[in-house]
Amino acid sequence: MRTERSTLSLITDILRHSSGLIQKEIRLAKAEMGENISRAGAAIGLLVGAAILAMIALNLIAGTLVAALTAAGVSVVWATLIVASFFAVIALIMVLKAQSDLKMASRAPSRTAARIRRDANTLKEAAYEK
Hints:
Blueprint: H1 2-71, H2 76-105, H3 110-129
C-alpha cells in the first residue's frame, strides 16, 4: 500500500510540475512569436519604403539626371538607362534586406523548443530519481 501512495504521489508531482512548465512554455512561445511578427512587420515596412523611394526618386531626380548626362554629351537613351539602373540597384538592395529579415521572422520559436526539450529531460530525470 505504501508503494501505491508513493507512486501516486510521484505521478501527482509530475503532473503538477508538467502543467506549470507547459503553461510557462506556452507563454514563452507566444512572446517569441510576437517578436517574429514585429520583425516581419518591420520588413514589410522596408518593402513599402523601397517602393515609395523608388517612385519618388524616379519622378523627381531621374529627369534631372538624364538631362545632366545628356548635357554632358551622353545620348538620351544611354543617360536614361544609366539613371534607371542606379535606382534599380538601390531598390534591389532594400528588397534583399527585407527578404533576409522576413526569413529570420518566419523561423519557429527555437528558444522555446530547446527549453521544452530541456524541461522534458529534467522531468524524466526527476521521475527516475524518485
